[in-house]
Amino acid sequence: MPAIASWGTTLKYGSANNCVYTGTPATSVGNVTSLNVDGISLTTIDVTTLTDRFRKFVAGLVDSGTLSLEVNLDTDSGSNQMTLIDDLDASTTGAATCRSFLLEFGEATNNKGTTIQCAGYVTQFSIRGSVDAVVTASMTIKLNGSVQIADVV
Q1: b/e for 11-24, b at 16 or more Cβ within 10 A?
Q2: Confidence band (pLDDT; 50, 70, 90) for 111?
C-alpha cells in the first residue's frame, strides 16, 4: 500500500466492556488536529546467571502505550470532546471511565487507509491559549490491553 494521507482521519469512541475494545465506536471526536499512538513496547526480563558470558532475556509483558490527541477546543456537545474530559473527572461518575477507541487513518471509510482499535482511560487533559491563536487542548489516553492495527482494503 502506498503512503496514507492523514486527510480524512477520524477518532471515534464508545463503551468498553471490562476495558476491552467492544463493538464499533460510533461517536466522533470533533476538531482533532493531530493524533499519535506512542510507546507500544515489550518489557524484557533478565534471566542471566553467574555462569553466563552474555546477558539473557525473556519476553515480559506488552505495554500498549498511549494515544495522544490535539484538538481545537470546542465545548459544544456536538464535538463530543467534553465527554472524554468528563471521563477523566471521576467526581461525576465515581470512577474514571474506560472507552473503546477507533482510529481511522486516511480514508478508511472509503477502504483506503489503516484502522487502530483499542481501549483506554483518559489520563491527562491540558488547555493552551496564546496571542493570535485558537484555544487548543491536548488529551492523553493510557491504552489498556491489545492494540489492533489493520489495513483497510
Answers
A1: bbbbebeebebbee
A2: low
In the structure grid, which three cell numbers stand for residue 69, read together? 490527541
Mean pLDDT (whole number) for 79-91: 83
Chain-centre distance of CA 63, in angstroms? Answer: 13
Flag whether the pTM goes above 0.90.
no
If phi > 0 it is left, if psi is from -120 to 50 it is alpha, else beta; for residue 90 that is: alpha
Nearest to 124 by CA among 78, 85, 73: 85
CA distance 107 to 8: 5
Strand 136-152 with 112-128, pairing: antiparallel
Length of the chain: 153
pLDDT band at 146 (very low <50, low <70, confident <90, very high): very high
- State the chain's maximal CA–CA distance in angstroms: 65
pLDDT of residue 141: 96
What amino acid occupies position 18? N
